[in-house]
Amino acid sequence: ETGVTQTPRHLVMGMTNKKSLKCEQHLGHNAMYWYKQSAKKPLELMFVYSLEERVENNSVPSRFSPECPNSSHLFLHLHTLQPEDSALYLCASSQGVDPYNEQFFGPGTRLTVL
Amino acid sequence: DAKTTQPPSMDCAEGRAANLPCNHSTISGNEYVYWYRQIHSQGPQYIIHGLKNNETNEMASLIITEDRKSSTLILPHATLRDTAVYYCIVRVYSSASKIIFGSGTRLSIRP
Fold first, then answer.
1. Does residue B17 surpass a pLDDT of 50?
2. Which of A35, A61, A86, A87 lies at a C-alpha separation of 20 to 30 Å from A10?
3. Residues of A with Cβ-Cβ distance to B102 under 8 angstroms
């Protein structure tokens, strides 16, 4: 247990569906991240939130929409996804976005888009 | 961004030391070397990090060369539970929030 939880752990959705991924951290951190891990590819950073403000967006398609209502919760809203968006989506948190701060990862949500 | 190069796969006998190399020849003076590992279908797990000096914790040791262009992660007594993909990462100071993961080394521990 890292103190970062993600729900659901598995999700299957059609291309016309709208769904949301949820992440919650119990560590008192103030920065949260979304990563995508496709099969046989390196982890890709998608979004970074610091003090509930988005500080980084790595050219992610608009069909992925993040939301950070408070420092403990992070959502990733999904709509009109493509099959190539099937991947493991990982949430992480850290205390500050200082590069020397350790990021704690959740277990991930395995997403399959049909 | 400093890039890292790791062998795609390695194997090690259970109970022996596993030595995982990493090259980071373009590392800058303020950049740290971090190691994470990812066991199948789980999130990455932090292992250890260092700047110049060798570091040791309950999980592993990190040896960084004097010129800082390469490092080695050492798992002193590998077990089957150490089977995972190991990522060597250099933190990018100018992009304060990024962890840039490469392809990593898939370590297999044989009984």
1. yes
2. A61
3. 42
Assess whether pLDDT exceeds 80 at residue B27: yes
**Mean of pLDDT values over A50-75:** 86
Rounded to whole angstroms, the Cα distance separating A50 from A77 reads 18
- Residues in Cβ contact with B78 at an 8 Å cutoff, skipping those fewer than 6 apart: B12, B13, B14, B15, B16, B17, B18, B107, B109
A10 touches B: beta carbon within 8 Å: no
CA nearest A13: which of A66, A89, A99, A67?
Answer: A89
Q: Is A106 on the interface with B (CB under 8 A)?
A: yes
pLDDT at residue B96, as a whole number: 43
Instruction: For chain A, positions 45-104, list CB contacts with chain B under 8 A.
Output: 45, 48, 50, 55-56, 88, 90, 92, 97-100, 102-104
Phi, psi of B12 (to 5 degrees): -150, 145
3-state helix/strand/coil string of A5-19: EEECCEEEECCCCEE
**A26 or B101, which is more confident:** A26
Written as one string, the DSSP assignment of B44-107 is: -EEEEEESSS-EE-SS-EEEE-TTSSEEEEEESS--GGG-EEEEEEE--SSSTT-------EEE
Does any CB of chain A come closer than 8 Å to the CB of residue B98? yes
Of the partner residues B93, B97, B103, the one whose CB lies closest to the CB of residue A55:
B97
